């Protein structure tokens, strides 16, 4: 199960409405060639490398100088949930981790975050 925003759902619906094929993969490559292919159409599924290339293309357009991967997006997703108060167990469920210890890698904190937690929570700092 994947949770998406209303805006993302609208964009996804618009994308699917424009597609001329009836192939099973959600994201396909070469859509101009896929409209006359019979389902399932697995040979038109977007490859891992194609997805990586798309992520890097839009990162470069956004001015990001590193070369992020799809896993970077996953890591950012989990980190932002955690920073905004999401329960670690909920994040584990959303990421599909079987073991909570796998999810624990996202609990890294930056020094400013730790300083703020110390300021808020330590009795001598209030």
How do you describe this structure in short?
The chain has 126 residues and is mainly α. The chain is 54% helix and 0% strand.
Helix content: 40-55%
Overall morphology = elongated
**Largest sheet at a glance?**
none
Mean pLDDT comes to 88
Structural class: mainly alpha
The topology string of helices and strands comes to: HHHHHHH
Radius of gyration: 20 Å
Measured between the Cα atoms of the first and last residue, the distance is: 42 Å
How much strand? under 5%
**Low-confidence spans: pLDDT under 50, at least 5 residues?**
none
What is the count of β-strands? 0
* Helical segment count: 7
Write the layout of secondary structure elements.
Elements (H helix, E strand, L loop, with lengths): L5 H13 L12 H4 L13 H14 L8 H14 L4 H8 L4 H4 L7 H11 L5
Polypeptide structure, described:
The structure is a single chain. The chain has 126 residues and is mainly alpha-helical. It has a domain at 69-126. 54% of the residues lie in helices and 0% in strands. It contains seven helices and no strands.
């Amino acid at each position: 199960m994947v949770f998406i925003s209303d805006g993302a759902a609208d964009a996804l619906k618009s994308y699917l409405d424009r597609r001329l094929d009836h192939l099973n993969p959600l994201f396909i490559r070469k859509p101009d060639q896929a409209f006359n292919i019979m389902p399932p159409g697995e040979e038109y599924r977007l490859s891992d490398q194609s997805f990586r290339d798309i992520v890097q293309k839009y990162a470069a357009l956004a001015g990001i100088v590193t070369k992020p991967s799809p896993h970077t997006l996953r890591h950012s997703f989990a980190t932002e949930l955690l920073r905004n108060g999401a329960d670690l167990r909920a994040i584990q469920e959303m990421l599909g981790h079987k073991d909570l210890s796998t999810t624990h890698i996202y609990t890294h904190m930056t020094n400013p975050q730790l300083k703020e937690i110390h300021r808020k929570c330590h009795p001598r700092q209030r």
